[in-house]
Amino acid sequence: MEPTKFDIADYLDSHEMIAEYLNAVMEEGNDSEIVVAIGHIAKAIGMTKIAEETGMSRPSLYKALSDGAKPQFSTIMKVLKAVGGQIKISPI
């Protein structure tokens, strides 16, 4: 029997899990890790659905949200809105 590859997107099955995951990555991760995390969230929800809501193509989304990508801030904001999220600033 061959082991299956772990995919975090399989566990992002509620708004609460998505928020916890993204908040954890934003606290501890770098910009590339945050972009990839948003990609995992988009995959969990469904790239086709996110593509429809953002007006972007699926290939463009995969490219923009892949490791090493440097998407425009407007792309990140579109995807966050499509997945039901937003950025909030808190004082540190």
Structure commentary:
The protein is mostly helical and 92 residues long. It has a domain at 34-84. The chain is 59% helix and 0% strand. It has helices at residues 15-28, 31-45, 47-54, 58-64, 73-82. Helix 1 (15-28) runs antiparallel to helix 2 (31-45) and helix 3 (47-54) packs across helix 5. The longest helix is centred in the middle third of the chain and has 15 residues, at 31-45. The model has no long low-confidence stretch (mean pLDDT 92).
Short synopsis of the structure:
With 92 residues, the chain is an all-alpha fold.
Characteristic key phrases:
92 residues; 5 helices
Q: How do the helices and strands follow one another from N- to C-terminus?
A: HHHHH
Low-confidence residue ranges: none
Oligomer: single chain
* Counted beta strands: 0
Q: How large, in whole angstroms, is the Cα Rg?
A: 13 Å
Distance between the termini: 48 Å
Q: What form results from the Cα inertia axes? A: globular
Estimate what percentage of residues fall within beta strands. under 5%
Question: Helical content, roughly?
Answer: 55-70%
Number of DSSP helices?
A: 5
Structural class based on helices, strands and sheet pairing: mainly alpha
Instruction: Describe the largest sheet.
Output: none
The average pLDDT score comes to 92
Topology:
Elements lengths: L14 H14 L2 H15 L1 H8 L3 H7 L8 H10 L10
Helix pairs in contact: 1-2, 3-5
